[in-house]
Amino acid sequence: MTRTIKIGTILIGGGHPVAVQSMCATKTTDYLATAKMCQHLYEHGAAVVRVAVDTPQDATALAKIRDLTDANLSVDLQENYRLAETVAPFVEKIRYNPGHLHHAEPNVSWTEKVRILVNIATRYDCALRIGVNCGSLDPAKKNDVAEFPPMVRSALEHADFLDSLKFDQYCVSLKGSDPFAVLDANRTFARLRPDVPLHLGVTEAGMPPEGIVKSRLALEPLLAEGIGDTIRVSLTVPNARKAEEIDAGREILRNVEMGTMISPDEWQSNRLNIISCPSCARVENEKFIELAEAVREATRFAAELPLTIAVMGCRVNGPGETDDADLGLWCGPSRVNLKRKETLLGSFSYDEIVPNLIEEIRKKL
Ligand code: SF4
Question: pTM here?
Answer without folding.
Answer: 0.96
